Amino acid sequence: MDLYHLKTFFTLAKVKNFTKAAGLLFVTQSAVSHAIKRLETSVDTPLIQRKGKTLALTDAGLTLFESCERIFYEIERADQDIARFKQEARVRIRIGSTVEFGTSILINHIKAFLDAHPDILLDFFFSHHLETALVQDEVDLIIDCKDHLIPNLAKIYLFQEQYVTIASPAFVRENRIRSLEDLERINILSNGKHLEWWQNFISAIPEKKRTCLKNVIQINHIRGIINGAIAGLGIGFVPKYTVLRELEEAILIDPFPRIKPGADHFNIFIKQEKLAFKKHKALVDYLSLLKPSEFGVD
Predict the structure, then answer these.
(1) Torsion over CA: 56, 62, 65, 70 (sign)
(2) Which CATH superfamily is domain 163-248 in?
């Protein structure tokens, strides 16, 4: 089997799209198709199933893909090990995280790691859709509060993410908000119209009162929800670490302090093969040792 053909197959199997694979490999789409055909001929069995625009691996293709993961990650690790023998050699880690955690927590607590590892460069990818980037090796590891059931994935627990309802003191006074029933007549600021964003709050209140959230204003960014609450547009529901300063300075208050919403768990997710890389292990160890109290979570 030709190594170039294997690399082409490995890339295509990750992204499941000929055009995207060609772009990643800096070749034409026909070159990708030709390499796959040559590889299938050399092993004398189909590796790819094409059904319209969809693409899937055959059983033989899945077996070969798993072998390619081991082969190419081992080559990448060897390349990183050899790099330290070069003068002023630097290696790169691509880290993904949710938008608000990345921009308000990760960026503010990563300098000590970079100071301790001057040979490492970091690229940051902030998104609420991280799984595809991880599967396709667009990032080396992700920090996420969603679970990911990808085969051969390591999961390292970091901390619990606490949530809080927020409103401006003036809004609470003017609307005389004292009980859950009052939520029926005020605006609810949510990341989605169907209140998926509020589920940790909804699950913490009595079932007969869970229909009180009716007038939804959709704001698709946490900072927008926070600023909307400050401006008196309604009541928001956000991770507590995002509003510590506003709560401390009474710019915002929690209208329902007795309600304890459910918490999400933040974890590091990284492919097992990549966790064996020294650079990745160093970053995972650093992030795991950060104290949640340092950035206002439990």
Answers:
(1) positive
(2) Periplasmic binding protein-like II (3.40.190.10)
- Structural domain boundaries of the chain? 3-82, 90-158+265-295, 163-248
Domains 90-158+265-295 and 163-248 share a fold: yes
Q: Does 3-82 carry CATH code 3.20.20.70?
A: no
- CATH, range 90-158+265-295: 3.40.190.10
In the structure encoding, which two tokens stand for residue 256, read together?
A: 């329902």
pLDDT at 105: 86
Query: Which value, to the nearest 10 degrees, does the dihedral of the CA atoms of residues 212, 215, 217, 223 take?
Result: -30
Distances (CA, A) of 56 to 66, 109, 116, 259: 14, 40, 43, 47
Start-to-end Cα distance in the chain: 52
What would the mean pLDDT of 188-207 be, rounded to a whole number? 91
pLDDT surpasses 60 at 217: yes
- Over residues 90-94, the mean pLDDT reads 87
Distance CA 25, CA 298 (A): 43
What is the 3 state secondary structure string of 111-173?
HHHHHHCCCEEEEEEECCCCHHHHHCCCCCEEEECCCCCCCCEEEEEEEEECEEEEECHHHHH
pTM of the model: 0.72
Write 42-46 long-range contacts (CB < 8 A, 24+): 42/1, 42/2, 42/5, 43/1
Q: Is the pLDDT of residue 83 over 80?
A: no
Q: Strands 141-144 and 91-97: what pairing?
A: parallel
